Amino acid sequence: MANLQILLRQHVGAPCAPVVKAGDRVEKGTLIATPTGLGANIFSSAYGVVEDVLEDRIIIKPDEEQKDEYVKIPEGSKLDMVKAAGVVGMGGAGFPTGVKLGTDLQGGYILVNAAECEPGLRHNIQQLEDDCAKVIRGVKHCMEISNASKAIFAIKKKNEKAVKALREALKDEEAITIHLLPDIYPMGEERAVVRECLGIELNTTQLPSAANAIVCNVETLARVAEAIEERKPCFSKNLTVIGKINGGNEPHVFMDVPVGTSVGEMIERAGGIDGVYGEIIMGGPFTGHATTEDAPITKTTGGIIVTIDFPDLHGASVGLLVCACGGSEERMRDICQKMNGVVKSVARCKQAIENKPGAPLKCERPGNCPGQAKNNIQFKKDGCEYIIIGNCSDCSNTVMGSAPKMGLKVFHQTDHVMRTIGHPLYRYLRVSKQVEQLPEGK
């Protein structure tokens, strides 16, 4: 087992402060770093020795023999145990779950984000297919902690096996229902979950609490159940490896991977890279970023994607249409460079809002987008031959309403991923944004 690199920042907020030093022996579940402000406890994910403590990470050399036992968190109230276990939003957001559950909903909703919206990823859906009972127990714990009276699973209709498992498990649960989502991106954005489930539009500065709701990811809820029922610290991660992998490009799902395991080790576990490739992405096709084989996974790592090579634009002029639902401008410039394009013009989606200078963009109405003709006119005026877009399903559809007519050739930032995994490219929207609900909300 290779060395584990456990990053000190695996959540929203400031990096944690180490509480161990080089030479210390640690066990699975040993507390190794604590928050300095907003944050969550970080634990060793293996038995071994601390080899080094660096500015941004703790390096642990694991023992050759590993035991299943772990150091248990202290008993306490359910909320205290969630905080002690270091549970965070494991769908990628990384907000400390103990802080989120501190909201008194006074009869509101726990909304379960089971959208698994990033194409190619399926570890959350597999969790529901294999053991949705644990997730449901996590929901009930969260309802009790936050005084919620109801809960709703927001899941895409296409995931029939998972929906069937949920329907069976929830048949006697009057307070927990299912809301079926269309297969468009980004149905998993938390304000989109609120809108779809509750019919409430939140602005870009509002949290779900403004709708008397808390949104939690599937894996987060399973970790809540483990913290409360098993006193288990959060030191492992479920994830999907997919792409240009020996043995095929189907999703390879791994459960309970020790945090700090390298990307390269996970790719090897999936079969290894199949020949020449374009890049390795940590995260999903839309919101992930390029990474390396020696990078470590964290509590928020959802996917590892190995892509085919990029097309060569041979120095052509490119416009970048930056969307709040996709990659940042930095990510899109990275993709353009890898395609040998030259950035000539940059524009933002009409709904992309910067709440504070330098803050990540927020979409005004995720998944429901206006036309993009004005931006396409700018790209044409600036002499662009190609445009690279990072838009959601609906927004990509509106781009295609005018770009081809102007002679602009369109690439989506996810194209190399979609071609790798055999998924339709994001261009024209061919599915309805409306989905009929199950009888009586089930």
Question: Explain this structure to me?
Answer:
The structure is a single chain. The strands form 6 sheets. Strands 13-12-16-14-15 form a 5-stranded mixed sheet, sandwiched between helices. It has helices spanning 78-84, 97-100, 123-146, 160-169, 190-198, 218-230, 263-269, 329-338, 373-381, 393-399, 415-421; strands at residues 4-7, 17-18, 25-26, 31-34, 42-43, 48-53, 57-62, 109-114, 150-156, 176-181, 213-217, 236-243, 252-258, 280-282, 289-291, 303-306, 317-322, 342-348, 352-353, 362-363, 386-389, 409-412. Helix 10 links the parallel strand 21 and strand 22 (409-412). With 442 residues, it is an alpha/beta fold. Helix content is 24%, strand content 23%. It has 4 domains: 4-62, OB fold (Dihydrolipoamide Acetyltransferase, E2P) (Beta Barrel); 78-232, 3-Layer(aba) Sandwich (Rossmann fold), CATH 3.40.50; 236-306, Roll (Ubiquitin-like (UB roll)); 317-421, 3-Layer(aba) Sandwich (Rossmann fold), CATH 3.40.50. Helix 3 runs parallel beside helix 4 and helix 3 (123-146) packs across helix 6. It contains 11 helices and 22 strands.
